[in-house]
Every structure is written in structure tokens, then in C-alpha cells.
Amino acid sequence: MIPRHLQTELKTQLSEYPIVTVLGPRQAGKTTLTRAVLPEYAYVSLENPDMRQLATEDPRAFLKQYPNRVILDEIQRAPELLSYIQGIVDENRTNGQFVLTGSHQLQLRESISQSLAGRTGVLHLLPLTIAELSEAGIYLDDVYHYLFQGFLPRVYDQNQRPHIAYGNYFQTYVERDVRQLIKLKDVVLFEKFMKLLAGRVGQIINYQSLANDTGVDGMTIKSWLSILEASYVVFRLPPYFENFGKRIIKTPKIYFTDTGLLCYLLGIERVEQLSRDPLIGNVFENLVILEALKTRYNAGLSANLYFYRDNQGHEIDLLCPRGHELLGVEIKSASTWNSSFKKALEIFNQKVHPLSKRTVVYNGQTIDFSDGSTARSYKEMAMVVDSSGR
């Protein structure tokens, strides 16, 4: 197992709450993490039909089998258990009794808010970070290999071929989970939608354009996007418009939680294709913003990440509010430094809102400038976010 940064926060929250819920996409490593960090806990997979049947038909009898500490994997498969778990933790008043994992936010959040409010810590585990790979002694040749190979642990543990692995992942998990959540009549149509969505990565979502190109109505697009987000396949980066008036774009951008899946959906079959792909800038941006998101989640924090764009063309790729301070990040896929990379940050800092830190993240070397701004490699994105005041 590649050690995960989230394990520190997992242990801490188990000392603070009777329940800790770990959410994240399929195959991100939730089961591996919890079982490795908590070997003394009993383990039950609710994907197992027999276990799920007992849990749903006789929750009391099911839970009596595990009077001490237990990991209940894929809890969204038996949400009936949550009310009974509430009764147990309220009676025992002991921290660290239950660890729940799940891969569907929508199914769990309502149940958690109703049954477990104030009783559970909630953590998010996304696929591996570059730092986690490096600490495990895994270094890839260049940014294109990181983008293409993606970050699912199994790709590294089993030395899988990325394009084949993500094709199987899409068909086995993404399509299957979507079928469980909606009445998907046309799998081909949904796959077309996914590929169109990949082609719009890093762009402001245009629901009607997606609907027209897919051949469905706008409400269907919104429903599918919500399900993909709830299943941690994609995430929305919201716009930052606090106190900036009506000139600000208020529609989110869309990104994928794994660049390997993104490359698969873009039809990239070999790593050599990436450097020539017209969307390389967007895919690189996805990687950098995803690293920031993972860093926040691994510390047990909310995302609290935004972009900025107004109708005058001023734009910042990533804004990170930290109290009264605001960190600004511009993202460039180039490997050679150009002074123009800082321009958007300077304009925003002078004309829109002061920035406590101004950083350009690119495919190059670290540079510290006399005006206080910095340039950092994409591999250092975790440090960029950490240094902003975590």
C-alpha cells in the first residue's frame, strides 16, 4: 500500500467523533486505507449481497455481530443502518466506534444529516497525489506521464496499462453506478455525453450547448452532472464573486477527479499524444487544481477553492481564500518561463482585489521574484496551498 496523507486526519477524527465517514470515488483507496490504518477493526463490505440483505432486513441483528469497532464499507448500499448506528453511539458515548465509507454523496449526505449530525466526522479521499507517489519512491518521467497514467492506486499497485485500465474503470464503475442512480436507457448516449464533457474540461459549463451536442434536454444534462459529481467522477470549481458586484461570471467550471480517466475519454491512447493535444493546457490545469483539492481534503478541510472571471476579460485560474487573505494562482502548461505569465495576477492584485500571495504554477523550475510573486512547478502545488495558511 502507498501510504496516504489522509491517514493522520483519519486517526485524529476517530479520537474526536464516535463515527468517521470516508467518502470518495470508486477505487480511490478508501478500503485499503481504512483497513491498513485500523487493523484492529472488524470489516464488512456491504457490496456483499448476503451482508447487505441481513443489514437491510434485520439491522439490529446485523449490528449485534459487531459490538466493538467496525468498518462498514460502501454504507450507501444499506442506508437503513444509519438510524440504528445513531442509537448505538448515543448510548455508548465512545469515540471511534464506526468507520463508514461511501462512494455516493447524494445518497449519504441526506441520511447523514438526518441521523448522524454532530456524531460523525466527514473526510474525502481522492486518488493519489504526486507527493504520495514521490514519498513511495515512484517518480514518472514528466508531466505527460502523470497526466496519462492518472492516480488510481491500482494502476500503480498492479502495473496496469493506463488506457486499458481506465476503459475498464469507466465501464465497470462509472456506467454501473450511473445505472444504479438513474434509469439509463441509452448507454451509448451517456458515453457520448462523457466524451463531450471531457472536451470541455476547464471551461465554464454551458448546459444548453452540452444538451444540444448530446441530443438530450438541459434538465437531463444537469441531472447527469449532479450524479457524476455525487459519485466523485467530476467536480465543479465555483466562481469567486464575493463583494465584486454583478459583472462577475457566476457559472462553475468542470474538472475530472482523475486525469487518467480524462485522457481515456479524450481518446488519448499513448502518452506521446498528450503534448500535441489541443487541450493539453486544460488537462494540465485539471491536474494542478486537482492537486490543490486533494491537499485540502487530505488535511480534513473543505475545498474552499474558486476561479475568477468578469465580463471585462479579467481572469484568475485559482483563488484560495484564507480568512481575510486571498491567494491567487495562475496555471500555465509551458516549461519555459515567460514574464507574461504573471500579468493576470498583477492586474487582479491592482484593480480587483489585493492578493496576499501571487503564484504561477507551470511545468518548469521554481523562481522567486523581487516583487514577492513566485513561480512553482506543478509538483509543488501541495506546498503552494499549504503555505497559504493551512
UniProtKB/TrEMBL annotation:
Instruction: Give residue ranges for domain DUF4143.
Output: 175-333
Pfam families noted in UniProt: AAA_14 (PF13173), DUF4143 (PF13635)
Q: SUPFAM superfamilies from the xrefs?
A: P-loop containing nucleoside triphosphate hydrolases (SSF52540), Restriction endonuclease-like (SSF52980)
Tell whether Transmembrane helix is among the UniProt keywords: no
User: What does the record give under GO molecular function?
Assistant: ATP binding
Where does the AAA domain lie? Answer: 18-133
InterPro entries attached to this UniProt entry: AAA_14, DUF4143, P-loop_NTPase, Restrct_endonuc-II-like
Question: What keywords would UniProt list here?
Answer: ATP-binding, Nucleotide-binding
This chain's protein is named ATP-binding protein
